Amino acid sequence: MIVKAKTKKKIGRLWGYALLLVVAYGWFGTTLGPGVIAAISGAVVLYTLFQAPMWCCADTRENEPCRNNAYGILMGCSIQQHKWQKLKMSVRVDMWGRLTKRVLTSIGGVAASISALAATMSAFVALGALIAK
To answer: In the chain, what percentage of residues exceed pLDDT 70?
Structure first.
């Protein structure tokens, strides 16, 4: 079977979601231990924070969210100011609401956010199971 380069590139950008499926299999199957599930869940969290494809959502000069492509919940687009702006929105507590609202405006942001929450909960439960053993 020959896989096109375009398909390989798309699969390469979405590898974190495939790992999320492995985590789900690990919880419902019996072959993966809690340490492996915690490690894979951590990798999914890092993927969603820094590599998941989504819109930038930083403020533009017209006070609208930026629609340029970006990677991860915490990273901005190719405009340097947008990278710092998203980082600032994630660090300052009074801007968390704006960041959440902006990230949840696109399907990529919703997918990354839900995946990050699921993977974080999975990692905590797996670590708890590992410690309780």
So the answer is: 98
